[in-house]
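stuck on this one:
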Amino acid sequence: ESPSARRLASGAFPAHRSSAIIWRDSWGLKMQVMHEIRPEFKRLSPAEIIKRLLRGAGSQSRRAGLQECSVTRQTASRGYNLADFRPYAPGDDTRFLDWRALARMDQPIIRLFDSADDHPQLILIDVSKSMDYGSPAKFSAACWAVMDAAVQCWTCGQRLGVDVMSAAGCLPMITPRKISGATGLIELVKSLSAIKPDGAINVDRSIAMSTARQTSSMRVTVISDFLPNAPTLLKGCRHTLNLLRVLSKTEVDPSKMLSHELVDIETGEKCFPGRDADSLDGYRQRLHDHGLAIVNLALSTGGFALDVRT
């Protein structure tokens, strides 16, 4: 089992989607693919989105993530200050139940402690025009991924920051801080719902701008379609990079398109000019090489790569 597979199994992303290995090359590198099955993000109210996110607390991968966090809390509780409380969720370690609160409120409450291993999470989300492609749009899947990470950070008591990669550069939406319960989650949902993907971006420049503002080492998750080119290795980068590539069904297999033509809506370039076998094989090879470059970059920083399909 690869480190990336273990990270996926640890509950970093709840099991709202099925997963499978889409390819393995001669070096044994592989990319996982997750199929997003939730509805269009902007069609739901913030309350409904939060409800759906918290409803996944009983899933297997979610329980695994909560148990992993409980181990951190057990270590942190030996001499660290109490940080927060939250309602008990299935899979939580019962050793951290607040029994006085249970007796007083007749509701199970979990105690959270500050941890010395609190590595802030920084998410970079692509809001370029190409992310508005597909039905549901790729940007919808990206928003769900951001909210999955936000709920996980809130569960573990970690700090979370969100930067927007736009044509104007990489701009902070939320500076790294701890999520303030449901209120903080709802504010993040509203901020994401207000975004209209547009323009073109340079992913390399956006990552460099965002990470340069950070004074300490962080875990950086980049959510993008990485089109037209995969990002390259950053010189002197001291951050762990997790790369989530979001693709639509027709971008994975353009032969299913009625028009038989796939065009980059940002550059106007024809990515798949025909339906003949040679064009399809060449496109699939370019898509494979694109994914391989993403995997190599992520692994070189100690991170993981993941395909999200809409």
